[in-house]
Amino acid sequence: MKPERLDYAVDPGPSPGTWFFRGVMRLDSPEAYARAFAPVLASLDRVPEITLDLSQVVFLNSSGIRAFADVLVLAREKRRMVRIFGSASVPWQKKLASSLHGLFPEFEMRIDR
Question: For the whole prediction, is pTM greater than 0.85?
């Protein structure tokens, strides 16, 4: 039996609080996203700001959008700055920015990579 191949990755970056997301994020359930995002949420206890690079995420389902919203809500509660980088070549990322600004107007999203 072959091990299940993940179509996505959530990897820490070179500096604390930096996270790189890649691939097709079509996880099966909110619980699956909770497991994938657990290290990101935990990092909010250790750093004053986090950077989330979504520029290599080609698809994100509604549970994934909810998972990012949860990151922003927790960051707001902990008074952490959030920067999100996206790609102009991925149309849904512009919509994500406008949707998430309602939850956390202070976060910064750059669609320029």
Answer: yes
**Architecture (CATH level 2) of domain 8-108:** 2-Layer Sandwich (3.30)
CB 93 within 8 A of CB 111: yes
Tokens for 60? 């994100």
**Nearest-CA neighbor of 97 among 73, 68, 74?**
68
Which residue in this structure is represented by tokens 């994100």?
Answer: 60
Do 72 and 103 form a contact (C-beta atoms < 8 A)? yes
Averaged pLDDT, 27-43? 95
Return the biggest CA–CA distance within the chain: 47
Virtual torsion, Cα 5, 12, 86, 62, nearest 10 deg: 50
**pLDDT given at position 1:** 47
Dihedral sign, Cα of residue 68, residue 100, residue 12, residue 41: negative
Q: What was the pLDDT predicted at 8?
A: 94
Angle at 75 between CA 83 and CA 105, to 5 degrees: 60
